[in-house]
Amino acid sequence: MAEARQEIRQFSAAWRSFKAGATQSNFASAMIMLTVMVLCFAILTWLASARLLAGDGHRLLMDGPLDTQTHATHQLLAASPAEKPSILVFGSSVMVRCVKDAPTLEQLIAEQANVDAKVYNLSTDAQTTWEIEAMIDQFPAGGHGVVVLGTSYGVWMNSVSDLEKLIREPKLGFPTPTIDAAARAEGISVPFRTGVFGLDASKYFLAHRKAVAKNLIYGGLEYGDPLDAYWMQIVNNQSFWDKEIAQLPDLVAQVETNLDANIETVRRTIRSIKQKGDYSIVLYEAPIHPGWFEVDGGDAFFSKIRRALQNLADDEGVVFAAARDQVPFEAKDFVDFEGHLGNDEIRMACTRDVAETIAEELVL
């Protein structure tokens, strides 16, 4: 016990000496503190860097094996213009479970179009139209290929409050000037941007600090299989489906309020893609639970969204395609009415449809 007290006294004395050196006005202590601050800033800048996320170090930032945002961020920051066609696939969690993975899609495209393509599977959970625009802005210019803009009804529900949340709690691990611009246009306050990657994306890195601490111990995480998500078993029951169906009037109201604004963001994104390079663009309607068309008001709801997509495709000279036009979905294929596919067999059918749609554009 006496030894413990002695150690505490020694630590206290050392701490007082450090505080005195840090606060007293003398040149030596000032230089020491300045050096420490510069070193800390350098370490922070190195850790919070595009290079870290582009490389294997992104595994340290994975907040779980299904961290779709970090997975997409890694692909984007590692991307480079290549001679082979680039295939970019976007969408929310419904598209996350419609396309199995990039290697499988690459293989199917090669079989159907005899083209060696590089696939970037950039679908993320709860993806917004502003995030799609930001990822397109981040992708290197000068390439060619096909961009698939996957859409499900949740995409059209996002409001200005969701945009404001993206400023407060960014989900992507890089600065997003297009999101900043959209926020300013809505009168949302945007933090000062420095032009330094680590500082401008600091909210993302700070949000992942606990994941980094854990992953440093266990060596980082690999991206997993989205069909293994724990919540898929929780929602796969009649009681949950009944609650989803009962929410249809609210869904209709939210889409009615926000559809036009989100369509305009997608329109802006389409025009940005055309400036990036020689890309064909597909507006792809993600899987829809067939049970919706048996619910009063369901058919009218999804028909309105489809017409809006078809009109946008016609206006901008891009392709419209829908999973339900080619894949004979049944209710048993889904775990919920949001449209999440629940098994690998039906996911492969959806992946093949996406591959066929892409292949048709590549051989034109």
Properties at a glance:
364 residues, Rossmann fold, 5-stranded parallel beta sheet, disordered N terminus
| Total count of domains | 2
CATH top level assignment of the largest domain = Alpha Beta
Instruction: Name the CATH architecture of the largest domain.
Output: 3-Layer(aba) Sandwich
Instruction: State the end-to-end distance.
Output: 82 Å
Q: How would you sum up the global shape?
A: globular
Number of helices: 18
Strand order of the largest sheet: 2-1-3-4-5
Kindly state the mean pLDDT as a whole number? Answer: 90
Q: List low-confidence stretches.
A: 1-15
Quaternary organization: single chain
Main structural class: alpha/beta
**What is the CATH superfamily of the largest domain?**
SGNH hydrolase
Radius of gyration: 24 Å
What does this structure look like?
With 364 residues, the chain is an alpha/beta fold. The protein folds into 2 domains: 2-46; 81-191 and 223-362, 3-Layer(aba) Sandwich (Rossmann fold). 57% of the residues lie in helices and 8% in strands. The protein contains 18 helices and 5 strands. A 5-stranded parallel beta sheet has the order 2-1-3-4-5, with helices on both faces. Helix 7 runs parallel beside helix 15. The protein is globular, with a radius of gyration of 24 Å. It starts with a helix and ends with a helix.
